[in-house]
Amino acid sequence: LVFPTDENVLIGLDRADDAGVYRITDDIALIQTVDFFTPIVDDPYWFGQIAAANALSDVYAMGGIPKTAMNLVAFPAQEMELTILRQIIQGGIDKIREAEVVLIGGHSVVDKELKYGLSVTGIIHPAKVLAKKNLRPGDSLVLTKPLGTGIINTAIKAGLASAELTDRVTRMMAELNRDAARIMGEFDVGACTDVTGFGLLGHLAEMVCGSGSSVRIESGSVPVIAEALEFANMGFVPAGAYKNREFREKMTVCAETVPRALQDVLVDPQTSGGLLISVSGSQAASLVGALQAGGIVDAAVIGEVTADPAEKISVV
Amino acid sequence: VSLKEIDARGLACPAPVLQTKAALQEEVWPGIKVVVDNAASQQNVQRFLESQGYKTTLEQSGEDYLVMGTCVSKPEEQPRLSPAPEAHVKKIMVLCATDRMGFGDDELGLKLMISFLRTLKEMGSDLWRLVFVNNGVKLTIDGSEVLTDLKDYEKAGLKILVCGTCLTHFDLLERKQVGETTNMLDIITAMELADKVISI
After folding, report:
1. DSSP letter at B53?
2. Residue A90 with chain B: CB contacts under 8 Å
3. How many CA atoms lie within 13 A of B8 on its CB side?
């Protein structure tokens, strides 16, 4: 396919980044993104919050400030009470308000399967766009949320997760990446993305491919929801994790000492996951310190960018 | 000796492992055979059975994977398959329709109200919405004795809603210092979503 484009497209479809970026003036570029999906939690209000946080995240991952949002709704009006839809949208609105974004429209269709999400528009200075692939050898990689939500969601379906765990993970998924993005803005950051459906290694692979660098991940330093390891050992690993691993098998070298369950967590599809930040190595510790002081307590340095031009991911 | 057989062909993860789990919850089968048609499900089922005290073997025939499990652990060694019951984090909404607690002495009522709002934090993360209507909105304006406390709540992530009609009625719209100005529909939606509404 040939995509229409012009000289003001700073990041378009050919780059497969978190969001598209279009220059309006020398000082302002638009960031545009859209995301919607089927319910991942039972509570409609929380589903609305999570879907909104997830859609907003792509703008934060580009280093931008989200400004406006529009609802996208597919609703089985015949089978479902309208109050459910109202609760979903209320969840979305509460999240949008928290992000200091305005809701200025939307569109709904009748569909067999319920879906909800947002299209989000943000702004950024054209020179400050944080693309995915600007990895610099010597940079450190920082992750801001723990991994394992896909496995936990599978365990929830199996009726194995406690109410406390369900609640904890729900809140984690609904957490905006706004504060992490704001704090990141004060440091020398080369590249950033958010971790979602392809899992940590899948999104890392997108950063690495075409960057001319390689990365090395210290698996023991990666923040993980502890229960996810337990449930992975019991076989509650979503199909997406197996697909993610297979898809990036050729460029990934994993040490045999990395436990099987931890390997699963590294490819586990995340919903509304954290930011994956490539920051100047000398500033990594202070970035993590600032993130933790700002309430992002799980943030950690998980690896580094190496000069190896083979574009590989090694996990030790 | 009874052998449980599960045909989970045509199903993607996590359905096959969920079926296997359901079978083990029904009964601890001495032997179990699960047929799946994809590698991911095969690995999940095999890992699940091994985590439950089964020894497993794998056979492949065409597109199908046959996972055979033999129970090798004693029943008392079986890991539990359901979570321990726990208290769920609730969504509690507190509706303050007055700036005094109770009736009778006004001075005492105000003291009680201040103490009530300060002690409310003991609800922890269960406290979800704090809504002020009628005379209650006077607690959110400049000069209110609980203003700092309310601001601390808001900073900690609690959503505070203040009735706009009431602020307008008392001509206090400009003096509100904390919370979001709200309307009746928002208040009703919050009541609908809350697990519990406490009205003062």
Report:
1. T
2. 189, 193
3. 31
Classify the C-alpha dihedral B179-B184-B187-B193 as positive or negative: negative
Nearest Cα of chain A lies from the Cα of B104 at a distance, in angstroms, of: 38
The residue whose two tokens read 């203003």 is: B147
Please, what is the Cα angle at A276 between A271 and A281, to 5 degrees? 165
pLDDT digits (tens, 9 = 90+) for A27-79: 999 999 999 999 989 899 999 999 999 999 999 999 999 999 999 999 999 99
Query: Which of B2, B81, B4 has the alpha carbon at shortest distance from B35?
Result: B4
User: Which of A87, A157, A161 is the closest to B83 by Cβ?
Assistant: A161
Cross-strand bridge partners of residue B76: none
Taking residues A248-271, what's their average pLDDT? 96
Helix (H) or strand (E) holding A155: helix A149-157
Residue B101 and residue B113 in contact, taking contact as beta carbons nearer than 8 Å:
yes
pTM of the model: 0.77
Q: What are the chain A neighbours of B180 within 8 Å (beta carbons)?
A: 97
- Which among B18, B87, B193 has CB closest to A45? B193
Q: What is the amino acid identity at position A187?
A: F
Cα A115 from chain centroid (whole Å): 19
Cα–Cα distances in angstroms (integers) from residue A2 to residues A11, A18, A209, A222, in the given order? 15, 20, 22, 39
